[in-house]
Amino acid sequence: MAEVAIIGGSGLYSILEGATEEEVDTKYGRPSGPIAVGKVGGIEVAFLNRHGKAHTLPPHKVPYIANIEALASLGVKWIITSNAVGSLDIGYKPGDMVLFDQFVNMTHGRRDTFFDGPEVVHTSVSDPYCSTLSDIAARKADELGYNCHKRGTVVVVNGPRFSSKAESAMFIRQGFQTINMTAYPEVVLAREKKIHFLGVGLVTDYDNGVHLPHEAEPVTFDEVKRIFDMNVEKVKRLILETIPEIKAQTLSCVCEK
Ligand SMILES: [Zn+2]
């Protein structure tokens, strides 16, 4: 049993103390990998590596629905995720963090609902991210002195390819701040399960750089990885500081309604 879960990359695994791993199966298939359960600040926390233990699952092959089902079956009520994001807004710089408040879904072929019939449910995701969790994380980021944007829209593309310059330019014109390949559909599946969901983005690059005043090299996976690894301790620290506060809060947000 764990009420709090983290979904992210292997860099975050060490956040857990005394972790043991559990293989979980669901009616939607197996999640990305075993679920590790350990302690963070004395609180039981589950951790799931989104891309699998050996990083073998590309963004379009991540079993998002099995992942959320598996965590829900463990009793998880709060999920904190971390994502590497490209910046579409020059105010969002590599190394900055962002707490998503909105998404735009440009993915396809990913199952994004538990209500596939015969039961018909229309879930509101007008505010898809948990404002209570966001407020806690925003406060902690300030206390830690991090450059953290308290709001930001993430446009989620299917991948695994990066965007063309024309696609980047379109997203920038639309006014989106960040771009990523895995931030959807985790958030909406969690909402269907009435799970509070926080999305923490770590800016790693400027995508194609078409909005920069100077010529820029288009993003590469190696660069994303290099900047993420350089900053993963900050993400870890923010999550570490946020988790103990969750228990202290009486959460009453739209997520549960
Ligand atoms: Zn909430």
CATH class: Alpha Beta
The CA-CA distance between the termini, in Å, is 23 Å
Mean pLDDT: 95
Proportion of strand residues? 15-25%
- The helix-and-strand class reads alpha/beta
Task: Provide a short characterization of the protein structure.
This protein is an alpha/beta fold. Helix content is 26%, strand content 24%.
Write the layout of secondary structure elements.
Elements: E1 4-8, E2 17-22, E3 35-40, E4 43-49, H1 64-73, E5 78-87, E6 97-99, E7 102-106, H2 131-143, E8 148-149, E9 153-157, H3 165-174, E10 178-180, H4 186-192, E11 196-205, H5 221-248
Parallel strand pairs: 1-4, 1-5, 5-11, 6-8, 7-9, 9-10
Antiparallel strand pairs: 2-3, 3-4, 5-10, 6-11
Helix pairs in contact: 2-5
Bound molecules: zinc ion (ZN).
Task: Give structural notes.
Strand 9, helix 3 and strand 10 form a beta-alpha-beta unit. The protein is an alpha/beta fold. The protein has five helices and eleven strands, in the order ββββαβββαββαβαβα. Helix 2 packs across helix 5.
Features:
binds zinc ion; 5 helices; alpha/beta
